[in-house]
Amino acid sequence: MAKGKIIKALSGYYYVKNEDGLFQCRARGNFRKRKIKPLVGDEVEFEAENRTDGYILDVSERKNELVRPPIANIDQAILVFSALEPDFSLLLLDRFLVHIEANAIKPLLVISKVDLVDEELFVSLHTYKSLYESIGYTVLFTSTNEKSDINDLKPFIEGKMSVVAGQSGVGKSSLLNILDPNLDIETNEISSHLGRGKHTTRHVELLPIAGGLVADTPGFSSLDFVDILPEELSLYFLEMKELSTECKFRGCTHSSEPHCAVKKAYEKGEIAQSRFEHYLQFLEEIKNQKKRY
Question: β-pairing, 2-10 with 43-48?
Fold first, then answer.
């Protein structure tokens, strides 16, 4: 029996890597009975008579996992948003952040294509950068095909397992290709007819980049709050998390309750209007979802 990490899953096969190389494995049938599906990023025990005929026997406990993309044990999420094409969206950024925080993954925010914007939008982007940095996030700007600022990413990737996420067409694959030109990941321009990028990434695979492992994942644009309860939501807005303990009522949702520390901070301008409005929008969405179920 040997140990290794799943670095790719494709067509029912799992590709497990360790110091002896890469092994193509299938999952033992008892995983289905136990309702466990091995994921890319899993630390596993396996046995293999040769490189192409192995079986995964056990999956170690995960520190976290994402459903879409299906991947486990992630250290950080590199969230890529383009300044243009598709247009930068604070709402989508906050939606992604809630999901990443809810899965106990550290986010790194990257705004791409900043060289394509006019002066007015450039000033707005700097304002957003300052806002999210004041909350506690790291925000990097990158330009199209500009190696110097994309290289600023390298220290954040080294020694970590990262997932790259964002809408289709924001330049995730282009960014990885610049970090490591040997990758040659397929990229596609935005479809002008649909106004969104075509899905070029078909499966999840961990790629060795800049001294770490990076998952290139399918682009996705829909993120539902299926597993988040209304009273939990503010835990995933960092600037509200600490304040929540000062509210008079336990389980305060910071919407209509009196003596709410979060609302008080918002009224004093200590919480950004966009963040508070998005919080209330997501809260309403979660409540409506719970009614439906």
Answer: antiparallel
Q: Which two tokens stand for residue 233?
A: 């939501």
Q: Known binder of ligand: residue 60? A: no
Is 136 annotated for ligand binding? Answer: no
Q: How many domains does the chain have?
A: 3
Question: Contact, 28 vs 57, CB < 8 A?
Answer: yes
Q: Would the annotation count 172 as a binding residue? A: yes
Residue 173 annotated as part of some ligand binding site: yes
247 marked among binding-site residues: yes
258 within domain boundaries:
yes
Known binding residue 255? Answer is no
Which residues are registered as beta bridge partners of 65?
72
> 49 and 81: one domain?
no
Residue 274 buriedness (CB in 10 A; 0-12 / 13-18 / 19+) = middle
Q: Which residue has the tokens 């969206």?
A: 89
Q: What is the pTM of this model?
A: 0.85
Residue 171 marked in a binding site:
yes
11 is in an annotated binding site: no
Helix/strand number for the chain, H first, E second: 9, 15
Is 169 annotated as ligand-binding?
yes
Residues 88-134 have pLDDT tens digits of 999 999 999 999 999 889 999 999 999 899 999 999 999 999 999 99
Is 167 marked as binding a ligand?
A: yes
Give the CATH number, domain containing residue 79. 3.40.50.300
Among the listed residues 213, 220, 258, 254, the one whose alpha carbon sits nearest the alpha carbon of residue 237: 254
Catalogue the E-assigned strands of 49-127. 54-59, 65-66, 71-72, 76-82, 106-112
Check the annotation: does 191 bind a ligand.
no
Contacts of 182 (CB under 8 A, 6+ apart): none
